[in-house]
Specification:
Helices cover 26% and strands 18% of the residues. It is of the alpha+beta class. Strands 4-5-8-6-7 form a five-stranded antiparallel β-sheet. Strands 1-3-2 form a three-stranded parallel β-sheet, with helices on one face. Iron/sulfur cluster (SF4) binds next to loops. Iron/sulfur cluster binds next to loops.
């Protein structure tokens, strides 16, 4: 591991300023992803600003009838909160589908949104990877790509976003709240939070350097039958080949987002509109323009079948 300096921040603006003033600095919260990456020198921050004392660990009602989830609320506390389980079941189920109990006890809401891809080449510092080292190339293109993206990718990167939680937040239209080094707040719709790789795959989100996530806000409950179905190579502790976050109403209308298929949680408004027409119509819209590799083309029919199972389940309950 490369040497780095360390400080514990006292308030969010001070934390944001400490990172913004120091090129190569990073925030540290639960550390369940960052510390692993530092040990293998995929991440080499020169300075860590520990935000664990910032008291951003509450889940509170908003004036709009929703919930404001502090950035440091652990994945376990979020998944087991009675209000989340009752009104935002898709979110609770998505979190429980991810990682182990030990990791969920430590991982935070903001950290979950910021976790890096699990593309195997990203973790091998002997191989080219534009996300790890811009301009070095992409070993996954032409390599083993079973786990990787089928849509929204570029000639520079075909990685997927690994978060389950983010897929549920996308279907719920969450907003990410931040503060910058001057103390100025900003609210970013989750749809605009994660980026497609384009020619800058090393930039995962639209956060500005030094901008700190303080909370995620959920709108008021939307009702409906809520599902999170995750298909993976083994029963637990594995990232999604495909996941489906869906909210389905009695009349068949609803909304859907996919995980495991793109560099960001994948939702298409036209696909939501096609929900009453069934899974094939929805999948056709979700995957319009898809460009899978021979290794991962199976994800397209797999996602359609998973969505069909969800719709069937919704109509029979
Ligand atoms: Fe790196 Fe992206 Fe290529 Fe994976 S797909 S090797 S993360 S550039």
């Amino acid at each position: 591991m490369k040497a780095f300096t360390y400080q514990r921040a006292k308030d969010p603006t001070q934390a944001a300023r400490a990172v913004a003033e120091r090129p190569g600095a990073k925030f540290l919260a639960g550390g369940t992803n960052l510390l692993d990456l530092m040990k293998i020198e995929v991440e080499t921050p020169v300075h860590l600003v520990d935000v664990q004392d910032l008291k951003l660990d509450k889940i509170e009602p908003t004036d709009a009838g929703g919930l404001r989830i502090g950035a440091l609320v652990t994945n376990t506390d979020l998944a087991t909160d009675a209000r989340i389980r009752r009104d935002y079941g898709v979110l609770s189920r998505a979190i429980v589908a991810g990682a182990s109990g030990q990791l969920r006890n430590k991982a935070t809401t903001a950290g979950n949104l910021l976790q890096r891809t699990r593309c195997p080449y990203f973790y091998d510092t002997n191989l080219p990877c534009n996300k790890r080292r811009p301009g070095s190339g992409c070993a996954a293109i032409g390599g083993v790509s079973r786990q990787l993206a089928v849509i929204g990718s570029s000639e520079h990167c075909i990685a997927t976003n690994p978060s389950d939680m983010a897929v549920a937040m996308r279907v719920l239209d969450a907003e990410v709240e931040t503060v910058d080094a001057r103390g100025a707040p900003r609210s970013i719709p989750i749809a605009e939070f994660h980026r497609l790789p384009g020619d800058t795959p090393h930039i995962d989100t639209n956060l500005r350097f030094g901008e700190l996530i303080t909370a995620v806000t959920l709108p008021k409950p939307i009702g409906g039958h809520q599902f999170y179905e995750k298909v993976r190579d083994r029963a637990s502790y594995a990232f999604a080949l495909v996941s489906v976050a869906a909210v389905v109403e009695k009349d068949g209308t609803g909304r859907v987002a996919l995980g495991g298929v793109a560099h960001k949680p994948w939702r298409v408004e036209a696909a939501d509109a096609a929900m009453p027409q069934g899974a094939s119509a929805v999948a056709a819209r979700l995957f319009a323009g898809a460009d899978p590799t021979p290794d991962n083309a199976f994800k397209v029919p797999l996602a359609e079948r998973t969505l069909a199972a969800v719709i069937n389940q919704a109509s029979s309950t």
